[in-house]
Automatic annotation (TrEMBL):
<dbReference type="Pfam" id="PF00975">
    <property type="entry name" value="Thioesterase"/>
</dbReference>
<comment type="similarity">
    <text>Belongs to the thioesterase family.</text>
</comment>
<dbReference type="GO" id="GO:0008610">
    <property type="term" value="P:lipid biosynthetic process"/>
</dbReference>
<feature type="domain" description="Thioesterase">
    <location>
        <begin position="16"/>
        <end position="236"/>
    </location>
</feature>
<dbReference type="InterPro" id="IPR012223">
    <property type="entry name" value="TEII"/>
</dbReference>
<protein>
    <submittedName>
        <fullName>Putative thioesterase</fullName>
    </submittedName>
</protein>
<dbReference type="InterPro" id="IPR001031">
    <property type="entry name" value="Thioesterase"/>
</dbReference>
<dbReference type="InterPro" id="IPR029058">
    <property type="entry name" value="AB_hydrolase_fold"/>
</dbReference>
Length: 257
């Protein structure tokens, strides 16, 4: 179960990043990332039931249920500094999992959220209720893939996944007002039509920790074209936090002696 849910894309011994895919996506979306992360950083990607290599499993239609499943299985991952990255639906899901882990005493170090309204802002769309054509047109408009979703084989395979994920994210409601203790880094494409730079800045309201907003060229799927820039930003901020942590631990050690 743990190997199916947390796909290990790249091993590492010091710290780990866990990535959460967008609606209709899969863990395989993050395969190219392994070449741009430091050697000591492990990379995991969430593979939800019914997605990717789990295509024959039953889909989930509720984001809180998704978060519960992930948080319950997270105990089997190594205990080390952990960073979450979630894009679009994955941002909301990563936030909910981070909250659950914090309550369980395994809070993460940093949450990277991308291309998604903050959890206290509800979407006013209902594509999950609309026709197959409307859903496919929306997916095509977002530009996340070059696939032709009108091909009958792809359409039959992917439409149930799109509809399930749209149901999960469009019916999502934040259930508590608890704040995260970890840092939150918000990333957005400057031409994103799904969420504005100003709206992304409101992610600052979900944490007691540090917050930073980083804007990249491009639209909703800016990360398809700005992967190296995005991962350079992530690597730089992770390294800065590790350095700060080591300095603090060194100071505490010298204070004790």
């Amino acid at each position: 179960m743990i190997e199916r849910l947390f796909r290990l894309i790249k091993p590492g011994t010091r710290q780990q990043m866990v990535c959460f895919h967008h609606a209709g996506g899969s863990a395989e979306y993050f395969l190219p990332w392994k070449t741009d992360l430091p050697p000591d950083t492990a990379l995991y990607a969430i593979q939800l039931p019914g997605h990717g290599g789990r295509i024959n499993e039953s889909l989930l239609h509720n984001l809180h249920q998704m978060a519960d499943v992930i948080a319950q299985s997270y105990v089997y991952l190594p205990v080390r500094d952990t960073f979450f990255f979630g894009h679009s639906m994955g941002a909301a899901l990563a936030f909910e999992v981070a909250l659950r882990l914090q309550k369980a005493g395994r809070g993460i170090t940093t949450l990277y959220v991308s291309g998604r309204l903050p959890p206290h802002k509800n979407t006013d769309t209902d594509f999950y209720r609309q026709s197959d054509v409307s859903i496919l047109n929306k997916i095509t408009q977002l530009g996340g893939s070059t696939l032709d979703y009108q091909q009958p084989e792809l359409k039959d395979l992917l439409l149930p996944i799109f509809r399930a994920d749209f149901t999960a994210i469009e019916t999502y409601q934040r259930q508590c007002t608890e704040l995260l203790n970890c840092s939150v880094m918000a990333c957005v494409g400057e031409q994103d039509t799904e969420v504005s730079v100003r709206q992304m800045s409101e992610w600052c309201q979900v944490t007691k920790g540090a917050f930073r907003l980083q804007v990249f060229p491009g639209g909703h799927f800016y990360l398809n074209h700005a992967q190296k820039r995005l991962l350079a930003f992530i690597n730089q901020s992770v390294a800065a936090q590790q350095s700060s942590k080591e300095c603090k631990e060194c100071k505490e050690y010298h204070d004790e002696i």
